[in-house]
Design brief:
This protein is mainly alpha-helical. It has a domain of about 90 residues. Helix 2 packs antiparallel against helix 3.
Amino acid sequence: MSDSTHSHGGAAHGGGGHGTLGRLMIGFGLAVILTVIPFYLVMGDVDLPRRTMIGIIMGLAAVQIIVHLVFFLHVNGSAEGGWTLAATGLAVVILGIVLAGSLWVMHNMNENMMPMPEGHDMMQMPDAPALHGTPENHS
């Protein structure tokens, strides 16, 4: 094994190559903040238009994915490999598909749901005959 290979392996797999505790704690703090803000927007009594709130939540979700890629998966622009850029590009494409698909499915479900009359019990079938206690079932 040559010296350059050995030294590269030591730097890449040493304690500093995969992030320090400080960087991991910064990533954790950002992840917590990026989780608490949307939670507060949904659970709190925030007076924002629905589309604005959805846009903020989706934007924070995208930022959170980037925080996870950078701080926890250590995706960066180093010359360590062109695969990093390809993986980031693929993550962006998948993020777009997941976000757009989720919004599309939720929108279509909301538009196609039948309104239920008040007091209607979905477990009770209105036209179903009783199974016990009627003379028709004892024949």
